[in-house]
Amino acid sequence: MIRFILRRTGSLVLLLIAVSFITFTLFQLGPADPASAACGQECTPERVAEARVALGMDQPFFLQYADYMRGLVSPRMIGAPGAESVCQWPCLGKSFQTNENVSDIISRSLPYTLSMAVGALVLWTVSGVGLGLLAALRKGSPTDKFIVGAASVGVSLPIPVTGLFLLLVFVNQLHLLPFTTNEINSPFGAQGPWAWVLNYLLPWIALAVLFSASYIRVTRTNMIETFDEDFIRTARAKGLAPRTVTFKHGVRAGITPIVTMLGMDIGLLLGGAVLTEQIFSVPGLGFTAVRAAISGDLPVTMAITMLAAFFVIVANVAVDLAYAAIDPRVRLQ
Questions:
Q1: How far apart are CA 156 and CA 227, in angstroms?
Q2: Which of 76, 181, 182, 318 has a CA 20 to 30 Å removed from the CA of 133?
């Protein structure tokens, strides 16, 4: 187990380096000039050159990249010559647009993304796995056909359609729910957990409609195959209660593909639900990443890209560990 974790940790570091290098290279090859954007509207070539020096973009590519990566393991100096300041570890740099520490931007955006991810995760997992299991148990019945049909509709609906429909019906027409506000980013705030739930309920539903549809279909297919296995017939022949056969033997054996999907989806969602955050105006990581990419804000884009990659890789490690706990046949080598 320890060797496995150490090996995956080494892979994590190498993958993050690769992701950071690719992102850094793409920005260097792109048409946007952050120095011109940071200079403002009334810009002269002299001021653009000064901005490039202040942003550290006058250095060769590899020196810029090495300086950025050095800040991830130790403090470094940033700023124009004569006006440099110490950027404490972990130094993600300063925004090209606002001159704000990127770590502060991430700290401000991450709670919004976490609020969206936690609620949506619970909603789509419970509904997706529960309805998929129900459809498998009622195979061929009207209930099964209705659930499968609803899942087919849900998986084909893009987030913009679902999100705008929910806003139109529940906010603009029925006035049952408030429009998402940026003042609530935690259930432990002054407004309380109920206000937090109401604030993020529509984004949760929009994400759950899309994700749970896939979970329903995968759960149903795997559980039907599992219920036809010999060990399930043996458990039934021994006279075990149907609930015991279903949940203790069937679900445990058929849930492993769901664990894989869940790990990947959690990692991707924590990296920022871009479309959902844009539709509901939630200033999370995805919302911030889009604005940074459009404006050519390299430090912010780099930080969010690496954070998203970190979440995905850690989620994959968690999936491998969960496999060993769920299925005794799996051993971590």
A1: 28
A2: 318
